[in-house]
Design brief:
- This protein has 154 residues and is an alpha+beta fold.
- Strand 5 and strand 6 (118-119) form a beta hairpin.
- The chain contains 3 helices and 6 strands; from the N terminus they run βααβββββα.
- The chain has a single domain, classed as Hotdog Thioesterase (Thiol Ester Dehydrase, Chain A, Roll), CATH 3.10.129.
- Helix content is 23%, strand content 36%.
- The model has no long low-confidence stretch (mean pLDDT 95).
- The termini are far apart.
- Strands 1, 2, 3, 4, 5 and 6 form a 6-stranded antiparallel sheet that branches.
Length: 154
C-alpha cells in the first residue's frame, strides 16, 4: 500500500524550542493527529467510539528525530498500516518536509472496550478497512530497539 497523507500542518512559533527548531513534544502531537486522521479515514472516529463503547489506545510508540524542522516549515505525515491482528494494529508514520523524511514514529495500538475496560477484537468492518491498507513490507526502521552500538539486548 502506498502511504496515506491525511495530515499536514505548518510549524508555528509555539512549536519551537530553545534550539530554534520543532520541539520533541510537538513531533509526538503531530504524529498523534496523523493517527487520529487515519482512524477517521477508516471509520474509527468519534461516532464509532460513541456507538460501540470502543476506542483505539496506543500501547507503545517509538519516535526517531532525523532532521531539524524550523518555524514556518510545512510538514506532512505519511502513514502506513504495517501490521494487524484481531485486536491490534501497527502503524508507521513518516514526517516529511519538502519530500524528505525528517522523523519517524511507529506505534502499536489496541482496540479497547471502554465500558469493560479491557481489550476486545476489532469489529469486522474496521478490521477489513485496516487490512485493505496493510503494507506488504514495513519500512526498515520498524521494530528497531534503542541501544548503544555494540551492546547486547537486556
Amino acid at each position: 500500500m502506498t502511504a496515506l497523507r491525511l495530515y499536514r500542518t505548518t510549524v508555528r512559533p509555539e512549536m519551537i524550542d530553545y534550539n530554534g527548531h520543532l520541539t520533541e513534544g510537538w513531533y509526538a502531537l503531530i504524529f498523534g493527529e496523523a493517527t487520529d486522521a487515519l482512524y477517521d479515514h477508516v471509520g474509527a472516529g468519534a461516532a464509532w467510539r460513541a456507538a460501540g463503547s470502543r476506542s483505539l489506545y496506543t500501547l507503545e510508540a517509538h519516535l526517531r528525530y532525523l532532521r531539524e524542522v524550523p518555524e514556518g516549515a510545512e510538514v506532512t505525515v505519511a502513514t502506513r498500516v504495517v501490521g494487524l491482528d484481531a485486536k491490534r494494529l501497527h502503524l508507521a508514520h513518516e514526517l516529511e518536509r519538502d519530500g524528505i523524511v525528517v522523523a519517524t514514529e511507529e506505534i502499536l495500538a489496541i482496540c479497547v472496550d471502554t465500558a469493560a475496560g479491557r481489550s476486545t477484537a476489532l469489529d469486522p468492518p474496521l478490521h477489513a478497512a485496516l487490512a485493505a491498507l496493510c503494507a506488504a513490507e514495513p519500512p526498515d526502521y520498524c521494530g528497531r530497539r534503542i541501544a548503544l552500538p555494540g551492546t547486547a539486548p537486556a
